[in-house]
């Protein structure tokens, strides 16, 4: 039986990192992949991809939930998959551009940003421990209230930057500009 490798690709999968699955960046071939969120284009759906030879007893419907088997969600997922595949490569290119812009901001604001990391459009901007948590919250509130850019805090000192994978360069540039303005306001 052994130990199985399970890749939780709920947030990072389906093109977000510039490859269909984030585990591909690292040469990992998991025994099972868990998907959700972007699969349904905003509708509730999840999926498990598993090697049938390794999991012969795993059958459809073995795991149930309160929102499973929705025909609308399934139709949305089937229609969405070709779009996700189409935008997968552009996610990688746009992510490289965004990472380079965040690195520039790290240089401009050396006392604020301690690290920038990510793959594709799955990016984390980490702030120094000395930056008060309220200031990090201020960044997320300011850019949303004043400019409509939704950012998600991640842990104590990091903000996630995860725009839609089909974002165009103009909108991506605007989002990065808004983020930089928020840094200037600190």
TrEMBL record:
<dbReference type="InterPro" id="IPR015422">
    <property type="entry name" value="PyrdxlP-dep_Trfase_small"/>
</dbReference>
<dbReference type="GO" id="GO:0030170">
    <property type="term" value="F:pyridoxal phosphate binding"/>
</dbReference>
<dbReference type="InterPro" id="IPR005814">
    <property type="entry name" value="Aminotrans_3"/>
</dbReference>
<dbReference type="InterPro" id="IPR050103">
    <property type="entry name" value="Class-III_PLP-dep_AT"/>
</dbReference>
<dbReference type="InterPro" id="IPR049704">
    <property type="entry name" value="Aminotrans_3_PPA_site"/>
</dbReference>
<dbReference type="InterPro" id="IPR015421">
    <property type="entry name" value="PyrdxlP-dep_Trfase_major"/>
</dbReference>
<comment type="similarity">
    <text>Belongs to the class-III pyridoxal-phosphate-dependent aminotransferase family.</text>
</comment>
<protein>
    <recommendedName>
        <fullName>Aspartate aminotransferase family protein</fullName>
    </recommendedName>
</protein>
<dbReference type="InterPro" id="IPR015424">
    <property type="entry name" value="PyrdxlP-dep_Trfase"/>
</dbReference>
<dbReference type="GO" id="GO:0042802">
    <property type="term" value="F:identical protein binding"/>
</dbReference>
<keyword id="KW-0663">Pyridoxal phosphate</keyword>
<dbReference type="Pfam" id="PF00202">
    <property type="entry name" value="Aminotran_3"/>
</dbReference>
<dbReference type="GO" id="GO:0008483">
    <property type="term" value="F:transaminase activity"/>
</dbReference>
């Amino acid at each position: 039986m052994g130990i199985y490798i399970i890749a939780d690709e709920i947030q990072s999968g389906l093109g977000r990192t510039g490859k269909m699955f984030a585990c591909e960046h690292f040469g990992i071939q998991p025994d099972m992949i868990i998907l959700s969120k972007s699969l349904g284009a905003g509708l509730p759906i999840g999926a498990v991809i598993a090697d049938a030879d390794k999991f012969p007893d795993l059958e459809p419907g073995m795991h149930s939930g309160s929102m499973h088997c929705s025909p609308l969600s399934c139709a949305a997922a089937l229609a969405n998959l070709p779009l996700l595949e189409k935008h997968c490569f552009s996610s990688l290119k746009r992510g490289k551009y965004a990472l380079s812009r965040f690195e520039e901001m790290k240089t401009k604001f050396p006392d604020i940003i301690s690290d920038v990391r990510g793959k594709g459009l799955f990016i984390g901007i980490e702030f120094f421990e000395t930056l008060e948590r309220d200031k990090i919250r201020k960044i997320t509130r300011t850019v949303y209230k004043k400019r409509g850019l939704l950012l998600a805090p991640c842990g104590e000192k990091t903000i996630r930057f995860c725009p839609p994978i089909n974002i165009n360069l103009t909108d991506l540039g605007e989002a990065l500009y808004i983020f930089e303005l928020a840094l200037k306001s600190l």
